[in-house]
Design a protein that fits this description.
The complex is a heterodimer. Chain A is an all-alpha fold. Chain A contains 12 helices and no strands. Classes of the chains: A mainly alpha, B mainly alpha.
């Protein structure tokens, strides 16, 4: 850990991204412009990105897209196989599964994106402060992070959930409390390597305040790995919510959650295959889309990475 | 090396003590108690009965006394009674269920390690060919699909539709196939990724070129020179992996009705089964510590330059 404090010799990997872009003899393109171009060439990443956008649209437009209210029971039409009025069939309470799937997308997206906002709000400032100021503060913060790391995440989340009770807000809280650690370490590491470089020294010499150094110079250059980490954090949060709801300590029952649906309908698998299968496919497709997008972003944002 | 191993094993004790203490504190800081669990099948008792039971199990004593009583008993491997099952002790329950989880975990471990290393090596050796893309896609799928999703889908396809394997149970080897695949698949993906990245780095190293230049067969180059050097990051991952999947999985065990210990990780938390929580966390911690030691000793076999201090 101490090694990171020794100034790094300039190599392409350690140069801030904009310096690298300027050093290329070709026509002037910005780092972000280049990244977008690299991303759009990656077929899997584009497919992933389009799928993610589609799921976002479904989540946002659930009120208009869903043919029935998600909690409306109709015992006259319980256990129905997929048909024209109910394209994905109905569950043992006669609720329309397509509608539940569509609202499930909304829950997944809220949990996935919302919890990452919380993770960023906790993880990045702590990592930034630890990385910028160093010293005793850094030491204390990192020991606390180590203790958090020692516990199996899912167990910790289950413990928090069984203490707080099921519910959307509590899931946010549980994922936020456990998830910030990775982002904190990442931000700190980035700041540690960046802060010893010439351009930061230059900024300081020019009279920049710590706030200006952190927000104008350090953070923009540490942004790429943070974006990649958040892209992978979203599916992990969706997974955690699905797992919690599968166990029964996640979303409160009338609200539909894909994971909760798999857990609830799994017992009917023998006679009514469609009930658990569609949510399974939805979880799988969402996780895959985010993974492909995240892989593509990582390759696109790190020009030094060899393919 | 023996001295190194002994020192490391001795270090396990303070580590486990710290884990026990932290778990104990968190456990008692969360609301609820074993006598008043929020578990679905908990029976509500009158306050008087609760007081009697608390007295019997020592739950009314100050926390530090409870903790030291616990430590005193743990030395004799006595974790106390399970508050959920009441009639059986935690050690009895775990003695019956841990071997099953360990067997399933070990099978999944072998499946994941062999499959992942072979797939990752093939992908790296045939870099940018169709087999490479297949590996990347398979690995991404393995990593990103939760195992309750693959579990349900495999069960639907192979048991209910094709009828190749039984739906539930744990008596015959035929029962073992689907849970093993379900548990091992995500890890296979991770291992394939690590192996591919690591082999790609080694494939272009000077000593690999030397090995080729002196006329060794491609197979010998890959197995003797490339793999041996590329496996170190993979081994780092494999150690903790066995501890993680050898202690059972709630999802896989509940989907395939495997009578393992995975369910206790979840049930003990929601039922505030204090003794069971401590036992499963410490079992996992001890397993993890031992596996990390095994990993560090394996480094020396793979790379004799690594010295033990």
């Amino acid at each position: 850990m101490r090694d990171a404090l020794i100034p790094q010799p300039p190599s392409p990997k350690n140069l801030p991204p904009h310096t690298l872009a300027l050093s290329l003899p070709r026509r002037e393109t910005s780092y972000w412009h280049d990244a977008v171009r690299r991303l759009s060439r990656n077929r899997l990443a584009v497919i992933g990105g389009v799928a993610v956008a589609l799921i976002m649209v479904i989540a946002a437009g659930a009120d208009f897209l869903a043919p029935y209210p998600y909690a409306k029971t109709n015992f006259a039409h319980a256990y129905e196989s997929p048909s024209a009025p109910h394209p994905m069939g109905t569950d043992p309470l006669g609720r329309d599964l397509l509608s539940r799937m569509i609202y499930g997308a909304r829950i997944s997206m809220i949990v996935g994106v919302g919890s990452q906002v919380l993770v960023i709000l906790i993880g990045v400032p702590i990592g930034a402060v630890a990385g910028y100021y160093g010293g005793t503060l850094d030491l204390c913060l990192m020991r606390a992070v180590d203790v958090m790391y020692a516990f199996p995440t899912l167990l910790f989340v289950i413990l928090i959930m069984s203490a707080l009770g099921a519910g959307l807000f509590n899931i946010f809280f549980a994922i936020g409390i456990t998830g910030w650690v990775t982002l904190c370490r990442l931000t700190r590491g980035q700041f540690l390597t960046l802060r010893e470089q010439e351009f930061i020294m230059g900024a300081r010499a020019a009279g920049a305040t710590p706030r200006q150094v952190i927000f104008r110079h350090l953070l923009p250059n540490a942004l790429a790995p943070i974006i990649v980490a958040v892209t992978f954090g979203v599916p992990r949060a969706i997974f955690t919510e699905a797992a919690l709801s599968f166990i029964g300590v996640g979303i409160n029952p009338p609200l539909p959650s894909w994971g909760g649906m798999v857990g609830e309908y799994q017992q009917y698998l023998r006679g009514y295959w469609y009930m658990a299968t569609f949510p399974c496919i939805a979880i799988g497709a969402t996780m895959l889309s985010f993974s492909f997008l995240g892989d593509g972003l990582r390759d696109a944002l790190d020009p030094t990475l060899k393919r | 090396m023996l001295r190194y191993a002994l020192v490391r094993i001795a270090w396990l004790i303070p580590t486990l003590l710290a884990m026990a203490l932290v778990t104990f504190v968190i456990m008692h800081a969360t609301p609820g108690s074993p006598l008043d669990p929020q578990a679905p099948n908990a029976n509500p008792l009158s306050p008087e009965l609760q007081r009697n039971l608390a007295d019997k199990y020592g739950l009314d004593k100050p926390l530090y006394i409870q903790f030291f009583t616990f430590l005193k008993n743990v030395v004799r491997l006595d974790f106390g009674i399970s508050y959920i099952y009441r009639t059986r002790s935690v050690s009895e329950i775990l003695a019956g269920t841990f071997p099953i989880s360990l067997q399933l975990g070990a099978m999944a471990f072998v499946f994941a390690a062999l499959g992942g290393i072979v797939l990752g090596t093939l992908a790296a050796v045939h870099h940018n060919s169709w087999i490479d893309y297949l590996c990347v896609v398979l690995a991404t799928m393995g990593v990103s699909l939760p195992n309750f999703v693959t579990g349900v889908l495999l069960l639907l396809l192979f048991s209910l539709t094709l009828g190749l394997f039984p739906v539930a149970g744990w008596d015959a080897p035929r029962n073992w196939v689907l849970p093993t695949i379900t548990l091992g698949l995500p890890e296979l993906g991770v291992i394939a990724r690590y192996t591919r990245a690591s082999v790609l780095e080694v494939v272009h190293a000077d000593y690999t070129r030397t090995a080729r230049a002196k006329g060794l067969a491609e197979r010998v180059v890959v197995t003797r020179h490339v793999l041996k050097n590329a496996l170190i990051p993979v081994v780092t991952y494999l150690g903790p992996l066995l501890a993680a999947i050898g202690t059972g999985s709630f999802f896989v065990e509940s989907i395939y009705s495997v009578p393992g210990m995975g369910k206790f990780f979840v049930l003990s938390m929601s039922g505030r089964d204090y003794n069971m929580i401590m036992a499963v966390i410490l079992l996992y911690g001890a397993f993890l510590g031992v596996m990390n030691l095994v990993v560090d000793l394996t480094y020396g076999l793979l790379d004799p330059r690594i010295m033990y201090m």
